[in-house]
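pasting for ref
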Amino acid sequence: MSVSQTLFGHRTPEGELLCVVALMRELPAAARSRAPEDHAATGDEAGDYARLLQAAEDGLRLLGRRGDGDGSAAAPVTQLKLPVFHRDRTLLLDVAQVAWLQADRHYARVTTPEGSFLSSVGLGDLECRLDPARFVRVHRSHIINLGYALELEREHDHGHVILDLPDRPRIPISRSRMEHVRRILGLA
């Protein structure tokens, strides 16, 4: 059984590619290299990995726009509600309310304008379930809702996204994801 069948109950090209992209993003930098552990990846190998990841993300966007080849529009397989814990209850948050998600061990911390909640679903699984047109992984520990992005601070080859919440949280953007985030925000 594939990852997308496990997550969504059926197999779709979008689900398969979405999970591949999520797993590629989770892969530690050392595992991305063909070199032994005591040698760092060369610039060529790191560039090959970045190009492969970009191609997979581009393919995912194309599948979302053009369908699966039969002329029909693809229906994105996305989650509309997000289960979170609050006191002794499980709440179902509307994903549109989610400003950002942060890894918290095997769980995810979900932040909304109303507060912060813990979800038993891990960040990698959530990335597969959320709409990639709205939610973007900016760091191995952070996914943001683009609707809450207010400002981008760039510091050399990495930076922060400032979110439109009362406390103006600064979410880190990793070096490896900076160009992708800039492209999504229309800055590249």
